[in-house]
Amino acid sequence: MGDSSAVPAAEQALGILSYMARQRGPVTAAAIANALAVPRSTTYHLLAVLIRQGFVTHLSERRRYGLGVSALELGTGYARQEPLAQLGRPLVETLARTAGANAHLAVMHGTDVLYIVEERPRQAPRLVSGLGVRLPAHLTASGRAMLSAMPTEQFWALYPDREMLVERTGRGPRTVAELRDWLRTARARGYATEVSEITQGLVSVGLPVLDHLGWPTAAIALTFPEADGRALDEVADEIRPASQELSRRIGGVPARLVHRDVTSRP
């Protein structure tokens, strides 16, 4: 049998993660200890373990703790499974049919996006962003849509440095500073775009799907040939009902109700 003494520690660690997930932003160790009735020394010990495992990040300048990349991956791991795909597939199918373009549903996986639903009408071009494919989030409309709606601390946990970002076709942001500019534009428009950054000649428009805290759980996007000459605002209007309906189905809020600036330092 396992060591039963480890059970309370496991429960307390899960309690910390659950508490942090319900907050709007990073919290102090004292707030965690008080909320969970856990000794402060124990709280610091558990936080240190969670930091080493990537589930928590320490914002030393603010003396606060926020959720780390591993917590995000755990959440998207759930999202990648059937509940979100089952809820979103009918919406994506309808969108692809009515828009006459490739439609897909994607979730974040670290700094990548993972496509969990894709619908391709007849005659539509085959995409590299097929079911189960992962692509750099900063190069895709789906990824940018989610990044633009992401809590500030989560964005900086994903992109802590100003290192160069990968590119595929010679287009798109090459540094975190440039990415921040792209996200400002996406937030101002209410949707994100990508033009020939994944595949030459193809354009994508994406909108986020938000949970009950207003955090991005997924994104829905349409992809079509640049030669179609579609107005991007009109494409976004086609996607918006599907993204808002999926947000509603998961108990979330419409993207228009969220006002967040991921481009400033926490």
Automatic annotation (TrEMBL):
Span of domain IclR-ED: 70-252
Protein source organism: Ruicaihuangia caeni
PROSITE patterns from the UniProt entry: HTH_ICLR, ICLR_ED
Alphabetical keyword list: DNA-binding, Transcription, Transcription regulation
Pfam families cross-referenced by the UniProt entry: HTH_IclR, IclR_C
Protein name (database record): IclR family transcriptional regulator
InterPro entries registered for this protein in UniProt: GAF-like_dom_sf (IPR029016), HTH_MetabolicPath_Reg (IPR050707), Tscrpt_reg_IclR_C (IPR014757), Tscrpt_reg_IclR_N (IPR005471), WH-like_DNA-bd_sf (IPR036388), WH_DNA-bd_sf (IPR036390)
Any one Gene Ontology BP term: negative regulation of DNA-templated transcription
Single Gene Ontology MF annotation: DNA-binding transcription factor activity
Domain spans labelled HTH iclR-type: 7-69
